[in-house]
Amino acid sequence: MSILRPACKANLVVLSSTYGQIRLKLRSELSPKVVSLVKQLASSGQKCNACKFCRHEPVPQSWGQDSFYGPPYALLQGSLADMAQQPPFEGSPAVKKANLGHVKHHPSVADEASWQVIARIPTAPYTNRTDGAITTRWLTPEATVPFNISLKQQQPQQEPKLQPS
Length: 165
Prior knowledge:
The protein has helices at 32-42, 112-120, and strands at residues 11-17, 20-25, 51-57, 75-80, 108-109, 126-131, 134-139, 145-146, 148-153. By secondary structure, the chain is α+β, with helices and mostly antiparallel strands. The protein has one domain. Residues 1-10, 95-107 and 156-160 have low confidence and may be disordered.
């Protein structure tokens, strides 16, 4: 007889675009209020009309060489503007590779297949925007990539059968 573990509280959000699906692990331990808003949007079953990727900056070819670790940092940025309300500020201020979210809220890329989809999303055509000393790259309006968001429950894992000794 096998025993089922309780269902995992962590959920996956799936961003679906014409380039494929990106699966993200929700990190409620870092941003519980924001994760709640994301889950609400993802589980609504409605099309996310304002959801789109608007910025994609690849890692520069010279990144990591001669102590160069400056921007851009392989950034994919988008909008979840169809959320029920403006998300509050909460969570950790540290952004690391594989973190994705709005501002400082960190769901994480779930698998290698998702990384492959991210790599296919266009990085051009773009325009530069300068704010003070910082210049950023933004996809032109015709190059933005719409996506839809859905919530996928992770399946409970089965305990292995105990072997008699």
